[in-house]
């Protein structure tokens, strides 16, 4: 699974609508409204690198109100949640 973190700039007046529309797109797992230099962050997860362009270029960038994107590809995932799940084998005592 390929994970891309997409930093999104949006028209301020449309941030809630843009976020909702992005969250409904195939390939977009989560959308966060954030503080800082961008307005939204979308977590894109697709089976292969070839599947990134249709999601980012053909879908995300065409949402009305999106004014710019900056995409970062994840090499590895480090997550406390994932580590805890790995140790939870369902064994008692």
TrEMBL record:
Pfam hit, one: AsnC_trans_reg
Domain Transcription regulator AsnC/Lrp ligand binding residue range list: 6-77
Source organism superkingdom: Bacteria
Native source species: Dermacoccus abyssi
Stored Gene3D superfamilies: 3.30.70.920
Protein name: Lrp/AsnC family transcriptional regulator
